[in-house]
Design goal:
Layout lengths: L2 H10 L1 E5 L2 E5 L4 E6 L5 H9 L5 E6 L5 E8 L7 H41 L2 H14 L18
Antiparallel strand pairs: 1-2, 2-3, 3-5, 4-5
Helix pairs in contact: 2-3
Length: about 160
């Protein structure tokens, strides 16, 4: 789409803000242009993914370090404020994903250490050897129920 066509389309759209998050609503869809320095790309993708069950999700790159997210409900909005509610839900989901991303980044080394310690400190070989030793100790020759093992039938 040419830049002139995009500008004329944008003027027909209704631009609103949810405090600091600006979105464009045209009666059929809602779109956001998000700065990756404020909202990490993984958080944007995570928030957009939460809406794929009820919206068509379109992602674009209008500029360097920017991601455009367009949400078009799969069923046409019946009320004018449904798109505003959708924009608010996306803003909340985006905030949730940003927080998850920050917590994940800040606790990543700790999680790696905990998993490494759990896997490396467990004596896997010794537990296998212990199970084999227990099986050797059992008296498999005595069969109180007289159940024959198939390979022993010919003896």
């Amino acid at each position: 789409m040419s830049e002139q066509a995009q500008n004329s389309e944008a003027t027909a759209d209704h631009v609103e803000t949810l405090d600091e998050l600006t979105y464009i609503e045209d009666g059929r869809r809602v779109s956001f242009t998000l700065d990756e320095q404020l909202y990490p790309r993984e958080a944007i993708y995570g928030a957009a993914y939460l809406f794929v069950d009820r919206c068509f999700v379109f992602l674009g790159r209008p500029g360097d370090q920017q991601v455009e997210v367009r949400l078009k409900p799969k069923t046409a909005p019946k009320k004018a404020d449904e798109l505003e509610a959708l924009a608010g839900e996306f803003a909340n989901a985006l905030l949730d994903q940003v927080l998850r991303h920050q917590v994940s980044a800040s606790t990543g080394k700790l999680r790696e250490y905990a998993f490494a310690r759990a896997f490396l400190s467990t004596p896997v070989q010794s537990s296998i050897e212990q199970l084999l030793a227990e099986l050797d100790e059992e008296e498999l020759e005595d069969d109180d129920l007289e159940i024959e093992v198939p390979w022993e039938q010919g003896e």
